[in-house]
Amino acid sequence: MKGIGTPSKKLLSAQSARNGVIGLSVILVARPRPPPRQPCIPPILEYTPMRHIEFQTAPSFNRGRIALAVAIALSFAACGRSNGGGNGNRVVGVSKQINEFMYEIGAQDNLVARDLTSIYPPAIRSLPSVGYHRALSAEGIISMKPTLFLTDGNVGPDAVLDQLRKVGIPMLVIKPGESLDSAQMLMTQLGKQFHREKAADSVIAKWRSGMDSVWQDTAQWTGKPHPRVLIMHFGQIGNSYLAVGGEGPATQMLRWAGAANAIDSTRTMTRLTPELIAQLAPDIIIATDVGFDRVGSSDKFATLPGVNLTPAGRNKRIYRINEQELLYFGPRTPATVRELVTMVHPPAAQ
């Protein structure tokens, strides 16, 4: 059989047909890659001027079976030229929040790579990583042949972004803000961008319902003493602990859970020293996963310089939480607030 898609150099004669060579006309489409928003459509389903393809087969072979085989082969060949999602998109997503939202709305087939800290949901770990979001490599990103570089803007270094622009890689920066409304607007925007509007609306509706339930249940802490909580996040660039402050998602979630942020600062992150930790004297310490896991346990964490001088260290009230749950708002926020409640107000104390 001559290769599929290779036109015959001559039309078949009646003699060749009698000798078992069947002329089969199929529709071949020579067109640009399907636009990102459309599924892969097998080319045989669209009309275009036909070309001849020559097949050598036994005289008794059924013409209908040949046509079906050709149709299937051409369909697979055309769809195989794009990514696994079959829509032509090749998105490198560099944002924990955005990538999680992509999975939530069922748009994950557009992704071909992620950043190192995008580890939720677990399925995203099967994608190749282009590195830490603040220490990216242009070569790694370019090697993925992306049709879009999607980020929340918290990326670097700037030289890498300049290189991506020079080679013509389109960029989309969506900043989510620091409120529930802005996070939900981010999901809505992603739904429109990747044509998953109904899925985004459904997720948001469930998310809002969950928050309404949380606010109703946590209203009991209004007007009561709020334990002071220090959130310790490990910065992988500076290799040091940072206090999560400001009026961002973490502080707001603490407030909903009936607690107060121990650090009164407008800065989102403040570098911690043993002296500052001791001075803040938190009742409770919540450490994000990377910083907690490098120590190994609550008991060991309580012995860290500065921590050992706090009420949290002395009373072993040190807890672990995944940073993705605390540093941005998402559909998991209702469950995160309930988790914080169990840390801040243990059942025995309620």
Care to give the gist of this entry?
This protein is of the alpha/beta class and 350 residues long. It is 36% helix and 15% strand.
Descriptive overview:
By secondary structure, the protein is an alpha/beta fold. It has three domains: 14-79, no CATH class; 91-175, Nitrogenase molybdenum iron protein domain (Rossmann fold, 3-Layer(aba) Sandwich), CATH 3.40.50; 223-349, Nitrogenase molybdenum iron protein domain (Rossmann fold, 3-Layer(aba) Sandwich), CATH 3.40.50. Helices cover 36% and strands 15% of the residues. It contains 14 helices and twelve strands. It has helices at residues 14-18, 63-79, 96-104, 138-142, 158-166, 180-193, 197-218, 249-256, 274-280, 289-293, 298-301, 311-314, 323-326, 333-344, and strands spanning 21-26, 51-56, 91-94, 111-114, 148-151, 171-173, 228-235, 240-244, 260-261, 269-271, 284-288, 318-321. Strands 7, 8, 9, 10, 11 and 12 form a six-stranded mixed beta sheet that branches. Strands 4-3-5-6 form a four-stranded parallel beta sheet, covered by helices on one side. α6 packs antiparallel against α7. The longest helix has 22 residues, at 197-218. It is globular. The N and C termini lie far apart (78 Å). Mean pLDDT is 80; it is low at 1-32 and 34-84.
Low-confidence stretches: 1-32, 34-84
- How many helical elements? 14
Measured as a percent range, the helix fraction is: 25-40%
Report the CATH superfamily of the largest domain: Nitrogenase molybdenum iron protein domain
Overall structural class, as computed from helix and strand content, comes to alpha/beta
For the termini, the CA-CA separation is 78 Å
What is the CATH class of the largest domain?
Alpha Beta
Total number of distinct structural domains: 3
Q: How would you spell out the order of helices and strands?
A: HEEHEHEHEHEHHEEHEEHEHHHEHH
Morphology: globular
Q: Percent of residues in beta strands?
A: 15-25%
CATH topology of the largest domain: Rossmann fold
Provide mean pLDDT, rounded: 80
User: What's the total count of β strands?
Assistant: 12
User: What's the Cα radius of gyration?
Assistant: 28 Å
**Main sheet summary:** 6 strands, mixed
Give me the CATH architecture of the largest domain, please: 3-Layer(aba) Sandwich
